[in-house]
UniProtKB/TrEMBL annotation:
InterPro entries documented for this protein: GGTase_I_beta, PGGT1B-like, Prenyltrans, Terpenoid_cyclase/PrenylTrfase
Cofactor: Zn(2+); Mg(2+)
Recorded superkingdom: Eukaryota
Protein's recorded name: Geranylgeranyl transferase type-1 subunit beta
Organism expressing this protein natively: Turnera subulata
Domain Prenyltransferase alpha-alpha toroid: 38-366
Length: 378
């Protein structure tokens, strides 16, 4: 395959592609999984396709272009196929999406703006008078993905102007310790606390976050049943639980194997958290995000990663999980959310991370706290 860059010159979401290979026609029968084995070669082919051109179904996700690129590039790294990526082209594309103050940085910072990364080219367009474009600001999730991609392709983050990014990150933290994703106001929840923590960790600069306040916010999100809701008082959720535990880990509040340490002195309730996570493995072997929900490929990572951080991954039924995940493996490569459906890039990426946690041969080990391969995280 060639090494043409995914992002820079052409716009893959507008490329023509044989969509029948990628997403289901309206009334198609369930797809059989490709085999009873993890089909690494087909997964590499699938991600290569996504790297070169995204099918038009992703058009509405244009604003999340950096996130989609992260799934393709980091996914190829898990599959030990990063050589298929044109690293220089990727770096220059990612850096072109960094937000910089126009002139006087101090003035801009006082307006409360955040100078991270835009999610895509269209989000760099200026606001029009009709306020049609409302997302034209750098975003915490895009910034996390930008830094994750740069680390994955081996670009040193010491080369980027991170001072303004760290200083302006403070503008997003709220009095209760949570974070806005963009400075013009939006929902605040654990997802953006996690993005902020991962950004500070990767930049090796925590000046953008009041860690104590963030810690207090996270602890308030732990529910009576041991899991974490996205906001204080909400129902426990696999994604929120991952964001909480991974953030505390990156912030240095949860060290080592928690089950081997003094659980009673932990700032969170570890025994009930362990219990909640283990109960998320359903009778079909897969993991659900909440009680009474169907098993879904991505929770094999979100909940599995928490169990790995707690030291409790050894208590899951890994054979049963493997069996469930293989029913979500597409014969075209990639993973679907539920068994027998067509794959998408999000569930494919988390399928690969799940198989990495299961120590599938031929995959790179994964740093669960940071959401990158171990090699990229270092
Ligand atoms: Zn899912």
């Amino acid at each position: 395959m060639g090494t043409s860059p995914p992002p820079p010159g052409r716009d893959p979401v507008e490329e023509e592609v044989d969509e029948t290979l990628l997403l289901p026609p309206p009334s198609s029968p369930p797809l059989p999984s490709s085999s009873l084995e993890f089909d690494r070669d087909r997964h590499v082919t699938y991600l290569q396709m996504m790297y070169h051109m995204l099918p038009h179904h992703y058009q509405s996700q244009e604003i999340n272009r950096l996130t989609l690129a992260h799934f393709a590039i980091s996914g190829l790294h898990i599959l030990r196929s990063l050589h298929l990526v044109d690293k220089d082209a990727v770096v220059s594309w990612v850096l072109s999406l960094q937000a910089h103050p126009a002139d006087d940085a101090a003035t801009h910072l006082s307006t409360g703006q955040f100078f991270g990364f835009y999610g895509s080219r269209s989000s760099q367009f200026p606001s029009d008078n009709g306020k049609v474009l409302t997302h034209n600001h750098s975003h915490l999730a895009s910034t996390y993905c930008a830094l994750a991609i740069l680390k994955t392709v081996g670009y040193s983050l010491s080369n980027i102007d991170s001072k303004t990014m760290s200083t302006s990150l403070r503008n997003l933290q709220q009095p209760d310790g949570s974070f806005l994703p963009i400075h013009i106001g939006a929902e605040t929840d654990l997802r953006f606390v996690y993005c902020a923590a991962a950004i500070c960790f990767m930049l090796e600069d925590w000046s953008g976050m009041d860690k104590e306040k963030a810690k207090e916010y996270i602890c308030k999100c732990q529910s009576y049943d041991g899991g974490f809701g996205m906001v204080p008082g909400s129902e426990s959720h696999g994604g929120g639980t991952y964001c909480a535990v991974a953030s505390l880990r990156l912030m240095g509040y949860l060290e080592g194997d928690l089950l081997l340490g003094n659980v009673a002195s932990s700032i969170i309730d570890v025994p009930s958290l362990l219990e909640w996570c283990l109960q998320r493995q359903a009778s079909d072997g897969g993991f659900q995000g909440r009680p009474n929900k169907a098993s879904d490929t991505c929770y094999a990572f979100w909940v599995g990663a928490v169990l790995r951080m707690l030291g409790g991954y050894k208590f899951i039924d890994s054979n049963a999980l493997r069996g469930f995940l293989l029913t979500c493996q597409s014969k075209y490569g990639g993973f679907s959310k539920f068994p027998g459906e067509f794959p998408d890039i999000y569930h494919s990426f988390y399928g690969y991370t799940a198989f990495s946690l299961l120590e599938e041969p031929g995959l790179n080990p994964f740093c669960v706290e940071l959401g990158l391969t171990d090699a990229a995280a270092l």
